[in-house]
């Protein structure tokens, strides 16, 4: 852990420090926007662990000034938030983001909007190709409203998780259990990303990226069956979502499973990026298929998959059951540089964080300190990393877990909406001051 005697090593001048949130998880004010697939999913009994909803969440729409003050007090350079597509489509919805961006600019905090963070308007469906065109129109409309103050944009957040959890396994919205028939959802999201990049460029955006979730995949043993299963998992969760925007192609065997004129679509998907966002939480240990159902960090996995996700041994776990393995971040980033070479733009860590309860959250401090040291090792090894965003500013509605897991630097009492900075907030503030 960083102390006065053991401070974090210095990061490069101009390194971007920030925190992240997403609209559905914090905004509330559900009555002032349209419905999303997450609203419909939450209405179905048993879908949310604690039976809660995001109707109020952190009431951020009404309390955004208080939250921007917390950002200013923390001393971050940037704030990554998402624009709710159903809110943007509602009367006056873009007015909220106008006010938020103005407040951020006045506080000296760079706004970094993400245009899609899973809350698809309920009338749309990622299985339909037209949704990609609709997303490009959404990007154009938001950029026309905010682009005069916002140079930095992120198109999509974690299309892999939205495909896998929402459409393949059904544990997230919209709750479809399509297994490998969900692959068109991945393709249409990636196509939407490329079309949005073009729309943002046309609107004058100068810094555009995507936020993909990645982690190294380690075979459970040296046995051939385990190594083959791990390679397949790496293709499915990492390369299927990184290769198209970075290399303009799918991994071998994947493109043939995608709909439409894939070659023409890949030309769109591979629009040049100014940075590549990486959300990192944990590595995966993967072995040969199993006849029994599995579990990965609380996500149930059916039997019959061509791999099985195993426990990462010898590591502590967070409240969400995810292994704490900072060295995996160094491994991931140096591996990405080796795999993609000069096709890899500068990297920004767009999410990294952990779930722990309590105001004196020393475990979160240890987690962040360890991951920042691992990130610095990747920088020292020559990986071009330009920024780091903690997930998350606030405790929030944690999707299917409801309010059971707390990822925030700031504690939120969801009854009173009182915000209380945790020990990790103070640690991060002091770390930032020392870096400058």
UniProtKB/TrEMBL annotation:
<dbReference type="InterPro" id="IPR017736">
    <property type="entry name" value="Glyco_hydro_1_beta-glucosidase"/>
</dbReference>
<keyword id="KW-0378">Hydrolase</keyword>
<dbReference type="InterPro" id="IPR033132">
    <property type="entry name" value="GH_1_N_CS"/>
</dbReference>
<keyword id="KW-0136">Cellulose degradation</keyword>
<keyword id="KW-0326">Glycosidase</keyword>
<keyword id="KW-0624">Polysaccharide degradation</keyword>
<comment type="similarity">
    <text>Belongs to the glycosyl hydrolase 1 family.</text>
</comment>
<dbReference type="InterPro" id="IPR001360">
    <property type="entry name" value="Glyco_hydro_1"/>
</dbReference>
<dbReference type="Pfam" id="PF00232">
    <property type="entry name" value="Glyco_hydro_1"/>
</dbReference>
<keyword id="KW-0119">Carbohydrate metabolism</keyword>
<protein>
    <recommendedName>
        <fullName>Beta-glucosidase</fullName>
        <ecNumber>3.2.1.21</ecNumber>
    </recommendedName>
</protein>
<dbReference type="GO" id="GO:0008422">
    <property type="term" value="F:beta-glucosidase activity"/>
</dbReference>
<dbReference type="InterPro" id="IPR017853">
    <property type="entry name" value="GH"/>
</dbReference>
């Amino acid at each position: 852990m960083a102390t006065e005697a053991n401070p974090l090593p210095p990061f490069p001048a101009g390194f971007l420090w920030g925190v992240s949130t997403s609209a559905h998880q914090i905004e509330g004010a559900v009555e002032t926007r349209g419905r999303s697939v997450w609203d419909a999913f939450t209405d179905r009994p048993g879908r949310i662990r604690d039976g809660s909803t995001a109707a109020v969440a952190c009431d951020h729409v009404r309390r955004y000034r208080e939250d921007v003050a917390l950002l200013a007090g923390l001393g971050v350079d940037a704030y990554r938030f998402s624009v709710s597509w159903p809110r943007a489509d509602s009367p006056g919805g873009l007015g909220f983001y106008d006010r938020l961006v103005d407040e951020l600019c006045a506080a000296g905090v760079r706004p970094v909007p993400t245009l899609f963070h899973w809350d698809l308007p309920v009338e749309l469906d990622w299985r339909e190709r037209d949704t990609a065109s609709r997303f490009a129109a959404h990007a154009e409309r938001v950029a026309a409203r905010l682009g005069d103050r916002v140079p930095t944009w992120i198109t999509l957040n974690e299309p892999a998780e939205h495909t896998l959890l929402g459409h393949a396994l059904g544990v997230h919205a919209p709750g479809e259990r399509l297994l490998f028939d969900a692959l068109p959802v991945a393709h249409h999201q990636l196509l939407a990303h490329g079309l949005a990049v073009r729309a943002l460029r046309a609107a004058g955006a100068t810094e555009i990226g995507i936020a993909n979730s990645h982690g190294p995949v380690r075979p459970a043993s040296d046995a051939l069956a385990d190594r083959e299963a791990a390679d397949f998992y790496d293709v499915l969760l990492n390369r299927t979502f990184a290769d198209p925007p970075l290399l303009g192609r799918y991994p071998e065997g994947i493109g043939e499973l995608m709909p439409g004129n894939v070659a023409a679509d890949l030309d769109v998907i591979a629009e040049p990026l100014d940075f590549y966002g990486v959300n990192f939480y944990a590595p995966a240990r993967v072995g040969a298929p199993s006849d029994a159902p599995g579990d990965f960090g609380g996500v149930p996995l059916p039997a019959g998959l061509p791999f099985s996700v195993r426990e990462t041994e010898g590591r502590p776990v967070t409240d969400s059951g995810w292994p704490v393995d900072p060295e995996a971040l160094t491994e991931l980033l140096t591996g990405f540089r080796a795999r993609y070479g000069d096709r890899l733009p500068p990297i920004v860590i767009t999410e990294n964080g952990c779930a722990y309860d309590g105001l004196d959250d020393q475990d979160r401090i240890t987690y962040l300190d360890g991951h920042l040291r691992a990130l610095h090792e990747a920088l020292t090894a020559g990986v071009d990393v330009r920024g780091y965003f903690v997930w998350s500013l606030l405790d929030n509605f944690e999707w299917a877990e409801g309010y059971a897991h707390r990822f925030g630097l700031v504690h939120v009492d969801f009854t009173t909406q009182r915000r209380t900075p945790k020990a990790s907030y103070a640690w991060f503030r002091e770390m930032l001051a020392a870096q400058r």
